[in-house]
Amino acid sequence: MYIRDIVRRSGRSLRSAKARTILTALAIAVGGFTLTVTLAAGNGIRNYTDKLVASNFDPAELLVGRDPDIANSGTPSEEPKEYDSSISSISVGAGGQGGLQLKQVTDEDVRWLKKMPYVDQVRENYSLQLQYITMKDHKKFAASAETFNPAQKPELSAGSLNKEDSLSRGTIILPENYLKVFNVNNPEDILGKSIIVSTQKLFDSTKNKNMNKNYKIVAVSKKAATSISFGTLPVLFNIEDARSIYDYTTEGSANFQKYKYVNVRIKDGENIENLRKAQEDLKSKDFFTQSSKDIQKSITQIVNILQVLVGVFGLITLTASVFGIVNTQYISVLERTREIGLMKALGMRSSDIRNLFMIEAGWIGFLGGVIGSSVALVFGTLLNPWISNVLDLGEGNNLLVYKPLQIIILICVLIVVAMLAGFLPARKASRLDPIEALRTE
Prior knowledge:
- There is one protein chain.
- The chain folds into two domains: 3-52 and 299-439, no CATH class; 126-259, no CATH class.
- The protein has eleven helices and 15 strands.
- The chain has helices spanning 3-15, 18-56, 107-115, 239-250, 272-284, 292-335, 337-345, 350-391, 404-421, 423-430, 434-439, and strands spanning 61-65, 89-92, 99-102, 105-106, 119-124, 132-134, 145-147, 156-159, 171-175, 194-200, 210-221, 235-237, 258-259, 261-266, 288-291.
- The strands form four sheets. Strands 6, 7, 8, 9, 10, 11 and 12 form a seven-stranded mixed β-sheet that branches. A four-stranded antiparallel β-sheet has the order 5-14-1-15.
- Helix 2 (18-56) packs antiparallel against helix 9 (404-421).
- The radius of gyration is 33 Å and the shape is elongated.
């Protein structure tokens, strides 16, 4: 008997028991739905992570420090760490709970890095602390601050950067959060105005040695969907101005002219091999390095773990549906015992009988996979806009991203699983004695 004839016959057999077939397929569909959504969520998060990294990190840059703990410097140490008198800087964890002693990058290290033949540029990371910002005849407001990073490409609601896509000295980018407190409705109206930035020496705060300086507002930033800033957006400074502020606030302290890490741009660093060689050389010189790919890998690893955990629930549902297929097919064998005996008596081979029932199970898997995936697609299409809005993912970013190839592979896997589940009932049917089967009432 040709395989196409077996496929057609199995389809007719399932249509004769539509209710049972659909109910069994729906059990498979639940597992298919869960797995389809899980895969789509994984795709969406990875896509968003790619955009996040691309918007905030230069692929040719390395984050270079002296201590691996810079990767989680905001987290207090869980285990007591032996004090090292050669390390002058101690960073206190969040809420003052515990401490983290960090080896810092010095100006001497920076000069050494700049001499390396593979280094194109070195940017120090300045931990800026402002006392307050204000405008004439306005109240004083607390503000966070960062050095302008060309790789981050801040989203602007007004204004622009200079010809080099950077900030000129004496200029800043002000977050749009401050427009309201400075009584400004249109961001264009604040451009060109002067803002007072006050900083204080950290080591001698009792004497109130403040440095007040005026900066020109050249642009207004707004929260971007791919921004990694938490809370209020920072005021962005030119790198020379940032160094001036940092040196003033840390002068006389253990942190003066020392940095948790620096950003090192590698010549032709877009080439992964060049970046890898630079990392290996810096690691051999007792530097800790991290590339944008390393950061992306760390985030993706977390996503993969979460995806596996959610996928396990889909597999559990799928496992339960396998028993449903076995039960359905066993019942089908019992109901069609005389039919099986007649087919054998007319010359149908045992292997064809076995294939008939296994293909019937495969049809159930196919139907369940199509239903589950179709519902998942509709679910994603309807909910993606709402999810993007709630999570503030930004325009064009969806949490659920479906890939046709993944869905096709998933349906094929469900067909194979269903056929394997139908193997035992199919074997029982193939081993029936035709004479005994025809005697069955």
